[in-house]
Amino acid sequence: MSGPAKVAVLISGRGSNMQALAEAAGDAYEIVVVASDKPDAPGLAWAIQHGLPTFALSPKGIGKPVFEAALDGALREAGAEWIALAGYMRLLSDEFVAKWRGRIVNIHPSLLPKYKGLDTHARAIDAGDAAGGCSVHVVTEELDGGEVLGQREVAILPGDTPETLAERVLAAEHQLYPAVLKEFVRR
Ligand code: GAR
Fold first, then answer.
1. What pTM, to 2 d.p., does this model score?
2. 87 alpha carbon to ligand 1 midpoint, in Å?
3. Which of 175, 124, 167 is nearest to 151 (CA)?
């Protein structure tokens, strides 16, 4: 293989996982574009400040097929070979997933297969679980359902709220995601 793997990172918000991925980039992978469905995502400003190419487009008013065609075009133009979802809060269509099959990964704030979807920390606390955590998985057509590539467990402490647990899990995400991505792009 020649040179680092070329990764596009998709964000919808603050992009702290994107920042962790960017800071860990090097011989294994480089970020060729940070793309967002939210033109005002704070993470985009960080990416611009740090010299990363960005692409922003809202799907509002143009429809999902047009939005995804533009997104796909921007990623390919940037030379992306892999896609890392990092707090990207919009479902990708089956058609988009099929075009990038086996080349999209996501970070999810639970120990999958537990708590797919939203409100993962509240659900783990309400269930009386001893631990929450995060998972990096391959994206397939099934929501949060693809092969799990790596996980970190985070103990749930007495008095934890979804917010306090989320903060500790997020720190674990920042460790886990770059490490798993480096391994994954070597496959
Ligand atoms: C992270 O906790 C990530 O695991 C979660 O959103 C947060 C994004 O934070 N992702 C999902 O819930 C995906 N369904 P970030 O924008 O600071 O990386």
1. 0.97
2. 4
3. 175
